Amino acid sequence: MKFSSQLLVTSLIGLLFWSSCSKSEEGAVEAVGEEAQTGSTEIQLTEEQFKTMKMEWGKLHTGEFSEEIRVQGSVQIPVEGMREITTYFGGYVYDLKLIEGQEVRKGEVLFTLENPDFLRLQQEYLEIKSQLAYLKVEWERQKTLAQEQISAQKNSLKAGADYEGALAKAQSLKKQLALISIDVETLSPDTMRSKISVTSPISGFVEEVIAVPGQFLPSAAKALTLMSKEHIHVELVLFEKDAAKVHPGQLVEFTSPDRPEEILKAKIYVVGKSINAQRQINVHAHLLDEKEEAKLTPGMFLQARIQLDPKLSLAVPEESVIELGDEYFILVQKSKVEGGFTLQKIKVTPGAKGKNYRAISSALALDSTTLVLVKGGFNLL
Q1: 219 CB-near residues (< 8 Å, 6+ apart)
Q2: Among 92, 240, 266, 360, which residue is least crowded by beta carbons within 10 Å?
Q3: pTM to 2 decimals?
Q4: How does pLDDT run across 104-122, given as a tens digit for each residue?
């Protein structure tokens, strides 16, 4: 009898436990909400749940939001800031002591060039210059004799041609000497020289050194490459599909690898008109604050965001947008009932982000009076 009593008690306890579990599971099913049972977009929320889960309401806003296009780019120097140092006449290179990266000033001597032909040009100029005065006087004399019919007209014409020819040669030699920085106004037999100085046309730095001391540098051969950082620009690479969205005047925010936390700003200046083989287009932008150009190095890689034209749109607090797989939803207060709220799940398409807000669009009509669940909505879906 004692064994039978124990068996009966054990059976009763098991029956009570099964009954309790069945009720708990039934209650859990009921707690899932109306949406899980019927497929409805409505969710019931009690005030106790609202407070326990520290939920908050927020309102829809209407404002201007700008979408962004993320692109890559680099720091470039425009062509007017680049100089290839060549010479009009060949010569032997001397006094070249520059190294790559060295700063140079406009007018500073870069190196000297020596060639005996420089002496010949100076000699020819001095010789022809000394003859000009005589040839001019002779031409005037022959014109007078021809007018008085004392001398033949052809003598006057020949004297005039001799003078004009000498004058043209003198002017040509004068300009050639100017190309090698020799001032004919101070030129004399005592100041003639076979070595000339090659000076920097810009202030900047040496990008590349090609010539070496003692080398014979032919005419038009490149000796150095200089670059000026007085003005630099940001060159961005834009894909073809985004080309129609971008135009001059739009703002660009970018960062450099060595200062990822520092955001610099620029404005689009030129958008390319042709697409390359990679289906890309170049976009040029100038920094808003030119003083910040000193922080950039030509060739530096950049990560940039182009701010597109702002559009008027509805927006919600960013925390209220719930991502489920590939879809986005918000929960709005449909009605307030006794002891709680009725929420409606609405599918939205998120857009540009603003400060703490995100633009949205929806097939349903929404306005600024709509209350949106800002916090805790993910736990209900």
Answers
A1: 87, 88, 89, 90
A2: 240
A3: 0.60
A4: 999 999 999 999 999 999 9
